[in-house]
Amino acid sequence: VGGLIGYSYGSYIDSTFVNNVDIRVDNVSSSNGVGGLLGREAGGSIGILSNSYSTGTVHANTANTGGLVGQTQGYVENCYSTVNVSSELSYIGGIAGLVRGSLDTVQNSVYFGNVYSSSDDINIGRINGSYDSNENNYSMDESLINGEKLPDKTNGEQVIPREDWLRAETYENFLGDAFYYGDAERAVVPKLYKED
What we know:
By secondary structure, the chain is mainly beta.
């Protein structure tokens, strides 16, 4: 289940966004993934999701739930999400719920929302719920994990104070030139240059 795409195999998804997504998945015993933009990328390390973002809310009573993508076997790069994510099971992430392959990564991405799981078997993170496969990712210090300001368990993530995210150069240093940051000082998140 995805806010824009439910299932992808080896696709190159670039410069794509969803605003104010509201996904609620109930009464499902198993899931390939629930994501704010993409449910599952099953491309075996050849799928790419880049220069994209999502905003809104995602809730599922299943595992593999993410603010941007629920489950991926590919690369996620230069993306961000402000989606608040909650699940009753495990593998919950602000960007990706589950990153499956050892060569698959989430990199150069940013998360600003909150993540929550009611599961006792918690695999949860601001970037992804897999605890690894991350490179050069960032989140805001006000992003909560299960209602608390906890250090993220995920490797490859840096927590940055909110005031630093009000400067365009912070985004420029991390996300490069794919986004417009001119409204950052007014606490307006970036937009893709290709967005109308």
